[in-house]
């Protein structure tokens, strides 16, 4: 191991959050620790895992290393299909996973883990840890290591800040200009190239572990930076004198909801919720929220209301629910829950509407933490061939919260001008328009058989 890797390995605790620059060797370090733990495991059938944002990424980055580190173990079993190593003397297993399918918790709820390494955690949905991996470590008191480089102040940044203060956690932030892994001459060359190309922020993020640079390709980077600068993310609680509304993104399995209030021109996001499962259960959880308001100046104080409007996506009327053969709108109506279904629009229009909405929005930092992480992680994908960002954002865990916020933005757009009703065919006005078109040398709008 390199000197800084040795320090991390010796000082590690049960839970660890290590922020490391590019080419530090963090993946190799974690695989070495997994192999060491598996070989020395005295528990019955030890299980260890390495998680990357995608399974293909885990295979490309870690699989060859894992085979290399265990090839000299006599009788080792290598399962190429499952990306799994089994040690013969104690039956311990090390397996590689991708976190891109975070419905994986349903199929693997019965398994346990003795140790797990989570690579590039900034690109992985937070629920993979909270809902899937953390419960797997409970009964055998397994350990976990989070590694990666910064991607803006998202959930990885929050985890690092918490790790610095929590008991039983170790934390480290290792910059390339401090570790000596990359020669100073090479770092100077990288910095000069980045300045020349106008990408100094990318250099600082990847090699100096700066949290101030938004995630590359972030859709709302400028708006969220301004939001933080203006102090519009903080303590903005629910105001009982104003109605509460919701904006939804409803998928085949995953649902996301923003709770918001409009106070003058300000839109106050007071809560965020996401869940997997059928729509009826999620509707019940919305009703259980303590959001009620009254118009004490207009009606008696005892007259109270719950929720003003629920904005839903256009496909509510078409798509079947996950748990029933009914459509989603049918499930909602059966529960006595009425959506305002928004018209179908383009993705570009929804993004532009959300950018405008962010200029007059405030967020309750604690209650909306998961939703803000989604907005910060919603990004365009880089085209490796053209070296430009694609025009359609990546559809991953962050898109649910971002699409739900876009539903709010579209719902708050001013109504469009009504269309002029068509002129009845055969009326006096209809034939007058045809005559005018003919005199101008244009073809009539329609040709009606049997008429002149």
Spatial strand arrangement across the major sheet: 3-4-5-2-6-7-1-8
Instruction: Report the top-level CATH class of the largest domain.
Output: Alpha Beta
What is the distance, rounded to the nearest whole angstrom, between the alpha carbons of the first and last residues? 93 Å
**Main sheet specs:** 8 strands, mixed
Total individual domains = 2
Query: How many DSSP-defined strands?
Result: 19
Instruction: Indicate the CATH topology of the largest domain.
Output: Nucleotidyltransferase, domain 5
Total number of helices: 16
Helix content: 25-40%
Globally, the shape reads: globular
Any low-confidence stretches, pLDDT <50, length ≥5? 103-107, 447-452
Overall mean pLDDT stands at 86
CATH architecture call of the largest domain: 2-Layer Sandwich
